[in-house]
Structures
1.
Amino acid sequence: MSQENKLAETFPWDYKFGDENFQKEPWILNKGKQNVTIEKSLDNKGFFYVQKNEERRLSLNHLQIKSTYNQLIQFGYKLQK
């Protein structure tokens, strides 16, 4: 299977309330004892905060967060339900 087929096209923040796959913020990805939290920025529309464990929280734009999400999935992280 090519790498292109593994990339997500729909992201957790793309779903609206009432959609089958809708999940409330924050979105948490887990891999063993590691976790990464993603949430929308309330201050800057179109930006997201990402934070690994208790490390510093980073602000990413829409394209950066999509790329980061796909990389985390490729590294074995799973979206917590």
2.
Amino acid sequence: MPATWDLYELFKRLMREQEEEMNKFFEEMQRTVEGLTPLYTVYEQGEAIYYIVDVPFVDYSTVYVKAESRSLLFSCQDKKGRKYSLRLPIPEKYDKYDIKVENNKSFIRIIIKKAES
């Protein structure tokens, strides 16, 4: 076997090892990044405000929604373990409200309705 062939194989092996090491590094970095901001849209219809939150490959068992004064705290994880968080404003005119969370195949819908007095 020529010497250049051995050098070529050695170089390929070193490159493969470096690539694997970098992939492990990037995977670890993705796991440590917390609080990615998901895409969302908001619209108001009648006596309700709708927040549509889009988290790719969401793990629905991790969805957490909490009302806190004039805002709504949303957090979840996707199936790869990445964490998402979002603070959504609640308009002043919704002084008393009910919250409903609906899971859909491709998004999460949060509905804030004015509570009947």
3.
Amino acid sequence: MDFGRTEAALAAIEPVIAEAEALGPAVNEGARVAMHGVRACALHELGRSQDASSANIVTAAQQRLPASYMALLACTGRLADARSFLMSLLANRDRRSFPLIYLQPVNQVRRATPSVLRTQAFRERLRSDDQLMKAVARHGRVLDFVVEAPAPERR
């Protein structure tokens, strides 16, 4: 979808989704939901969000596949929905690890695509939400450094 090829991405993903649906349970839910996430984002970028079938599939799987749901929210710029979703997960003892991990800083990608940059900015906006970060602080913390960052070069 990046680099102005959204129509091509949509044209490529639609037959793959159709084939995956025809194969039924041979294609796992995570793969199917990820494909529908790509389709939903492409439709959103093309201004065709009224076709909500793929977005509905991703939304229905939000509890089982929260990363796919957050990717959809980032793609569509639904910051308030993302905040609410993360807050609900933080309130659930069995689910709070996802927001704690999702909000951690990550390495900057060297050749970041527009969608990667959009997602990084989306996460940064979530991290700047005082109420969300207060809720995080009750259960853990968001580090102020990237855990998997490379060691500094020696001089």
